[in-house]
Write a structure and sequence with these properties.
The strands form four sheets. This protein has an eleven-stranded mixed beta sheet with strand order 3-6-9-12-15-18-21-24-27-29-30, with no helix packed on it. The protein has an eight-stranded mixed beta sheet with strand order 1-2-4-7-10-13-16-19, with no helix packed on it. A hairpin with a 7-residue loop joins strand 1 (5-6) and strand 2 (14-15). 0% of the residues lie in helices and 29% in strands. The chain is built from no helices and 30 strands.
Length: 238
């Protein structure tokens, strides 16, 4: 782990070597910015935020141990109080990482997206622009969330049918959430499922198979009950 040095730019600020930190970045107290991190102009790092955190993996973790590039915080982005952004993650322009949220290595958060309080974005996740992820969600590794998706509080995405009992070559499969779909509170998505464009997953549903575009699904397991009407499509509300 690279050494950290105290800085007088903000109370308790610790900086690693080679950090890019423009003069107009807003810094809270006790922020930690690790070596090589690139922070865009006008970004906000609130109290206790940790950016560029070195990767720490358990002995049995199957996640990649390849060398990571720097964490990147976009222009005007916000990393809220107590949030952690791991080295190799990218936070887009104007995006927000909520209080006590975590964004892991090689994850990408699109411009204007929001990751809610206490939510976890795992490694190798791609999140598009203007996505809204609410409080206490788990976005599992290797998932893709396209632009304008809404993920309600407490949603869980999963990627391992074996729950850890698999050979080394086993491929984890995250979920794919297509453009402008909506996933209701407490829903669970099993590994590899795809939620179609403009689809609607009701609260508490357990999605065990792909959901067609514009379908409304609910139940355990989730079943199609109707279609999203024209007046409820995203274009009506933008």
């Amino acid at each position: 782990m690279s050494a950290l040095s105290e800085s007088d730019r903000a109370p308790g600020l610790l900086l690693g070597a080679g950090v890019t930190l423009p003069d107009d970045v807003e810094l809270g107290g006790h922020v930690v910015i690790h070596a090589g991190t690139i922070v865009g102009a006008g970004a906000r790092l609130q109290d206790g935020a940790v950016v560029g955190k070195p990767l720490a993996l358990g002995a049995r973790s199957t996640a990649s141990r390849s060398e990571l590039g720097p964490a990147r915080i976009g222009v005007g982005a916000t990393v809220c109080a107590g949030a952690v952004v791991v080295a190799g993650a990218t936070i887009g322009d104007g995006a927000i990482v909520g209080d006590q949220a975590q964004v892991r290595e090689r994850a990408t958060i699109g411009d204007g997206a929001v990751v809610g309080r206490g939510s976890a974005v795992d490694n190798d996740v791609t999140i598009g622009e203007r996505v809204r992820i609410q409080t206490n969600c788990y976005i599992t590794a290797f998932s893709t969330i396209e632009d304008d998706v809404f993920v309600a509080p407490g949603v869980t995405l999963t990627n391992d049918d074996t729950m850890g009992r698999h050979d080394p070559g086993y491929a984890l499969r995250g979920a794919t959430l297509r453009r402008a779909c909506r996933v209701g509170g407490g829903a669970v998505l099993v590994p590899g499922v795809e939620i179609g464009e403009e689809a609607f997953v009701a609260a508490g549903a357990v999605v065990t198979k792909d959901v067609p575009s514009r379908a409304v699904v609910m139940g355990v397991p989730a079943r199609v009950v109707r279609e999203v009407p024209d007046e409820d499509l995203l274009e009506r509300w933008t």
